[in-house]
Fold:
Amino acid sequence: MSSPLELEDAQARLLDMLVPTPSRPCPVESAAQLFLAQPVTARRTQPPTDLSAMDGYATVGDGPWELAGESRAGASFPKAPSKGMAVRISTGAQMPFPADAVLIQENARIEDNRLVAIEPPTPRYIRRAGFDFHASDTLLEPGVRLGAAQIALARAGGLSQVVVHDRPRVAVIECGDELCADPTDCPPGLIPSTNGAMLGEMARDAGANVARYGPLPDDAEAITRTILEASGNAALVVISGGASVGPHDLVKPALEAAGFTLDFWRVAIKPGKPLLVATRPSRNGGDTVVLGLPGNPVSSFVTGFFFMVPALRRLAGAIHCLPQAVPMPLAAPLPVGGTRREFLRAEIGSGGVCPAEVQDSSALLPLARAQVLVDRLANVDAAKAGAFVPCYPLANCGYAWSISCSYQPNTAPVAARRAGGMEVAKNPCT
Structure:
């Protein structure tokens, strides 16, 4: 039996198997959450002319100034003011040529029908033509996901449509005799199925169209039939459960019966070791890829986070597929790392990151409350409170909002913080 792959090696092997979906033109306002297949190039200059950034007066020369009309947003000023003249101007209005400064409203007063400056006008309040972008500038690169700001930018650039990748199709299969489809009517000895719903939501958030199957019994023929059905319309098939070595773990023989070839099995992480990837040539060219995840909910979530979501982002055309860790300080010490690289569910408090006391791979409550996954390398040294550790942010319901609210970074120099100079609250997770 081969040794488990390191996380990064396994991720690279999976992503190399996948190619982005076909591309198509799409109206800008219908392209939310899709990934660009072609760059967005500006067709106009923004702003197209010099504009005022404040309410006040556009001035020519030194004051006091004679008033010469008004420049309003959305209208051009018909005549050029002469030296010693000023034009009333509103925010976003065109600067009348040859005015070269703005006297803001707060610094102006009228004396004897002439404009007088309390403080001198300044060109600082002029938005110069093209300061945002110029026609022919590349506004957005291929692989960028379109959100609210990107849609606004594309429209400001003069585009009504963009070229995007289609949403990838993913099938999510949940397996296990112990699973009950109806959580409101779950007999003793069974547990409500959770992984299909959880993985389906993660996939939708990654931009995929999702088809769900199961929960299926631990029956090789039923699993094989479902794999064959699911793989007919999906570039990626995700199976939760049945990927380990027990007598009821039947995903590997079911995949073999369905014509799939095992590429790799087991990854050196905790939770999530019994992960597998298998492939089969598809009718449309390329490969259909099956990603087998552990059945324990936390293991399924963690492997979904590090493998399923990056795979779907790759299929969707993302320029960056893998999650990125950010360094954050520990609110409390951590012991020496274990024999496998571990991802700890953790909340963020006033003192920094606080790993949950319960790290069992079946415990959903700490997972639902977690805001980050703390990355602990195998056999790593113990870490003191205040030490910085790599953390992967999670978008877990409303808890993600509290990251910016509850964590107050220490203002001490970085070197001091890394040496353990972080102040820790008495109750670090409040």
